[in-house]
């Protein structure tokens, strides 16, 4: 019941904040309506990092306590993180086209980092899908998630230097949109979007966690079913059919 | 101190075992070297015949070939263990798990270094590059890059060794993680070949060093989880 209430509140918050950010707040002087993409882009990027952080922490927790519930948290974080990462990249590309003139800007460290982030966690999810035993999968996925998380800062710095050491920054970074000198309305719209998206994220995380638990029960059920079927078959094979003639007679 | 020495002895023994098995069976070297050289040749077809363009792209092509070759190498090194249940035996030894990891890492490192040592002159010949002036920086880059590749590769080979789809999963997991290493080694190699004109060589080598330290520590800390079944 509480989760449903949270879902309703999150939905209302997202709708309210979106209407405000997309229609009520004035457009940016220089970028026009393209700047409004930021209101979706920034919360998505924030939630992607939050989700992957949760996945790494849940992985560490699993290795420590060996509790499959923590693994369910990890998979929720990874899946929802991948969704928000894709969102952030898509939004960034939509913004880049009118502002930079291209969809893909190799010199932007954030875009390149985020693309690698997507690849890292898509690999993580694929890996999970291809491993059967729940505890083995949880332990392996935990270490893969931890190594992916420690790789993120290195990826970020390397891509930052890649551009920075090579030549000076040639493009305005998205941060400039949120410069403190920006009117208070912009900041308020962004903060409300971040809060609304975070509420929706919490609801998604809880639902995905519950789904993971159900999936796990179904898996367990299937395993028990196969086991008892195998036992029945074994018993049948051991007892000769009563109406058949005795062998060798 | 004694514990550290014991771990080092274990690691060296495991690396020695892998080296011996490779020297006697020659399972890895031939195929990997042939594959990586073939990749370099195909890059030439894909980008040539303009000699300038090939020379400009050479550092990137060299390191891509080393990365692809190292994928095969680390996979094969773990495959040998998985056959005949040798990995289970290894996991049962009463030694530290991180010592086993370091041992497999050293074996992988030796293989990747041989690969790089062979590919460098091949690149020089195929793409018309002069290595003579830059060799100390190139050797440093090769060493740091190989440590990182062996560290990440050993870890992910351990993750995937018991999977059905390991041939697909190993590159899918490993390649995004080594992306910063690729970036740094390519930049360091370009910088070295250009005589460090921009003065950024040291920064890239430092980044490689950080990558190596982080990945070796992460791998050593978590590898034990992969041996437990």
Distance, first to last CA of chain B: 30 Å
Give the C-alpha Rg of chain B.
Answer: 18 Å
Order of helix and strand elements from N to C terminus of chain B: HHHHHHHH
Major sheet characteristics of chain A: none
Describe the structure.
In chain A, helix 1 (2-24) packs antiparallel against helix 6 (184-238), helix 2 (38-65) packs across helix 6 (184-238) and helix 3 packs across helix 6 (184-238). Chain A is mainly alpha-helical. Chain A has one domain. Chain A is 77% helix and 0% strand. Chain B is an all-alpha fold and 229 residues long. Chain B has one domain (2-227). Helices cover 85% and strands 0% of the residues of chain B. Chain B is built from eight helices and no strands. Chain B is globular. The model of chain B has no long low-confidence stretch (mean pLDDT 88).
Task: List the keywords.
heterodimer; A: 249 residues; mainly alpha; 77% helix; elongated; B: 229 residues; 8 helices; 85% helix; 0% strand; globular
Short structural description:
Chain A is an all-alpha fold and 249 residues long. Chain A has 6 helices and no strands.
């Amino acid at each position: 019941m509480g989760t449903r209430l949270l879902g309703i509140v999150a939905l209302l918050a997202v709708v309210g904040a979106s209407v405000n950010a997309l229609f009520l707040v004035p457009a940016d002087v220089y970028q026009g309506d393209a700047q409004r993409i930021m209101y979706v882009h920034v919360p998505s990027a924030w939630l992607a990092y939050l989700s992957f952080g949760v996945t790494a922490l849940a992985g560490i927790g699993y290795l420590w306590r060996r509790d499959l519930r923590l693994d369910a948290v990890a998979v929720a974080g990874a899946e929802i993180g991948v969704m928000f990462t894709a969102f952030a990249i898509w939004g960034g590309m939509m913004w880049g086209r009118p502002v930079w003139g291209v969809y893909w800007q190799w010199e932007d460290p954030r875009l390149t980092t985020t693309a690698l982030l997507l690849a890292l966690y898509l690999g993580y999810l694929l890996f999970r899908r291809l491993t059967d035993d729940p505890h083995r999968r949880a332990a392996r996925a935990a270490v893969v998630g931890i190594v992916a998380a420690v790789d993120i800062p290195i990826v970020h710095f390397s891509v930052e230097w890649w551009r920075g050491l090579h030549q000076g920054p040639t493009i305005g970074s998205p941060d400039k949109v949120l410069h403190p000198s920006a009117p208070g309305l912009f900041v308020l719209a962004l903060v409300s979007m971040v809060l609304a998206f975070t509420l929706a994220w919490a609801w998604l995380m809880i639902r995905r966690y519950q789904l993971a638990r159900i999936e796990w029960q179904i898996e367990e059920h299937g395993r028990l079913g196969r086991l008892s079927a195998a036992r029945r078959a074994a018993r049948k094979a051991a007892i000769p059919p009563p109406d058949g003639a005795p062998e060798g007679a | 101190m004694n514990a550290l020495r014991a771990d080092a002895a274990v690691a060296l023994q495991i690396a020695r075992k892998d080296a011996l098995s490779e020297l006697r069976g020659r399972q890895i070297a031939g195929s990997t070297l042939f594959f990586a050289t073939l990749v370099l040749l195909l890059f030439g077809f894909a980008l040539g015949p303009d000699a300038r363009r090939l020379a400009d792209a050479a550092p990137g092509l060299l390191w891509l070939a080393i990365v692809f070759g190292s994928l095969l190498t680390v996979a094969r090194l773990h495959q040998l263990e998985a056959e005949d249940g040798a990995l289970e035996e290894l996991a049962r030894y009463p030694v530290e798990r991180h010592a086993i990891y370091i041992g497999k890492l050293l074996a992988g490192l030796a293989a990747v270094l041989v690969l790089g040592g062979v590919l460098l002159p091949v690149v020089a010949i195929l793409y018309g590059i002069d290595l003579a002036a830059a060799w100390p920086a190139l050797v440093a880059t090769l060493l740091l890059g190989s440590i990182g590749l062996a560290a990440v590769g050993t870890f992910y080979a351990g993750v995937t060794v018991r999977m059905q789809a390991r041939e697909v999963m190993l590159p899918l997991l490993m390649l995004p993680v080594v992306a910063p290493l690729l970036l740094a080694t390519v930049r360091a190699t370009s910088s070295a070949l250009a005589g460090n004109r921009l003065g950024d060589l040291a920064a890239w080598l430092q980044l490689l060093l950080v990558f190596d330290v982080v990945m070796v520590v992460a791998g050593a800390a978590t590898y034990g989880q992969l041996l437990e079944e």
